[in-house]
Amino acid sequence: MLEVFQMAKLYFRYGVMSSSKTLNCLAVAHNYETYQDKPVFLIKPSLASNGEYVESQTGLKRKADLILKPSDIDILPHILKTKQKIYCVLIDEAQYLTEIQVYELTEIVDKLKIPVICYGLKTNYQNNFHGFGGAEALIRWADKLEEIKTVCFNDHCNNKALHNLRLENGSPCFEGTEFVVLGNINSHNIEDRDITYKPVCRHCYKEEMNNYTKKREVVETCV
Ligand SMILES: [Zn+2]
């Protein structure tokens, strides 16, 4: 039994937007490298954002050791090529990984016996996996699924946030595909629309979804 507990594992630590996932990821890297003098290997999917740094909203950042394009298949050879022993592999914005890349992570765990910790969103603003194949694959392949929790951002609501509510010019919106293209950016502009995301609980998400559907029905009836 002891051997089982000592095995390396593949972790998927998921949470909604603004739940400090990247900060958690960078804190783990800092812990390994600064306090224990144990090098880690930090990976960032190219779809997450431009640039070679993994950066949290607090400003804390670290250069990624590998930027993964969706077409990249190999990860394990990059780990083997490093001159120093790697104690942990960390991935930020793991929802953007491909199925093949997630499988490659299981190879790092099973063959190299190195723990791999992935941080990312579980579902998109439409509450499905579209554009987030990495999250879906990790839910199927990971040894451990761990939720990074935060509370609903709506005033006077203390429920746990489970969904990413998309706001266009301040109004909830449940359509459009730009989220997938532009990645995990908390705020951006498309044409004249200001788009932001708010973490909300299931109750608030469903309420907004029902209001949105009713408004659509009214508009369609008028036309
Ligand atoms: Zn709520």
What is the radius of gyration computed over CA atoms, rounded to a whole number of angstroms?
Answer: 19 Å
The H/E string reads HEHEEEEHEHEHEEEHEEH
Unique ligands: zinc ion
Mean pLDDT: 90
Shape: elongated
Give an account of the 3D structure.
The chain is of the alpha/beta class and 223 residues long. It has seven helices and twelve strands. The strands form three sheets. It has a six-stranded parallel sheet with strand order 5-2-6-7-1-8, sandwiched between helices. β3 and β4 form a beta hairpin. α4 packs parallel to α5 (133-141). The longest helix is centred in the C-terminal third of the chain and has 21 residues, at 202-222. Residues 180-185 have low confidence and may be disordered. The chain binds zinc ion (ZN). Residues 152, 154, 157, 159, 200-201, 203-204 line the site of zinc ion.
